[in-house]
Every structure is written in C-alpha cells, then in structure tokens.
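JOB MANIFEST
job_type = single_chain_structure
chain_count = 1
residues = 151
[input]
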Amino acid sequence: MIMRLVLVFLFCASAVFAVQPDEVLDDPVLEGRARELSKELRCLVCRNESIDESNADLARDLRLLLRERLVAGDSDAQAIDFIVARYGEYVLLRPTTGGSNWLLWAAGPMMLLLAGGIGIGYLRKRATATGSQETELSPQEQERLRRILEE
C-alpha cells in the first residue's frame, strides 16, 4: 500500500522536478514570470509538453535561455518573440492566428461546412430522384408468370 502511494506521488510530482534547482532565479518575481512563460512554450523533443514540464535537455536549454532574456530586462512579449524568432512558431503551445496559420485555424470549420454541403446535396438529390418506374408486364411476361405460378 505504501509503495503504491509513493509511486503515485512520484508520478504526479514528476513535473515538479523538471525545473532544476540551478535554473531557479534568485528574484521570485522573475522566477514566477519565467515559470508562467515556460508553460506557454512547447518542448521540441516531447512535442505536446511544455518546457516547464519536460525533462529533456533541449527544454532545459530553452528554460535557461528564457531566464537569461528576463534577467537581461526583456518583457514577457520580447522574451517569447526572441525564442519564436530563433526556433520558429512551432515552439508556441498556442500558435497565433495570424500569418499562414489562419489556414490551419480555418481548415476545421471549412471542412465541416464542406461536409455539410455535400451531405445536404446528397439528401436533396436522393429525395428528388425518381423511384423505379413500375411498368406493366408484356403479354409474353404475363404468360410466363402464369406458367410459373401454375407449377
């Protein structure tokens, strides 16, 4: 029971250990800003994990770079812009909607509208399509049917 509790604690606390003690800034205000900003940056190794949570070496380098920029006097936006300029917009966990990303943001709703239009068109065409035309049997077919039924 105790072993399970320890394992659960270690599993839940793994993100706490991502920031190394030697990375922590002396100024608690700057450290708080650095922690908030690092939650918005993607680890390029782990992909869907922030650099604040990641134990990868590249995430550590990004955390240190971010702290260097903040200590140098950069604002939050300047520090983020510096890292984006260096590593590309992929480093943001929440990409911007400007530039070429507008197509990615619009692709989902556009595909939904396209699928809805195709579905509505199909249903309308199906509703207006003429059913199978019933025609009367020819005299030869009537004679053949009569023979089949007599058997």
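[summary]
The domain at 11-91 is CATH 1.10.8.640 (Helicase, Ruva Protein; domain 3).
Residues 101-128 form the longest helix (28 residues).
exit_status = 0
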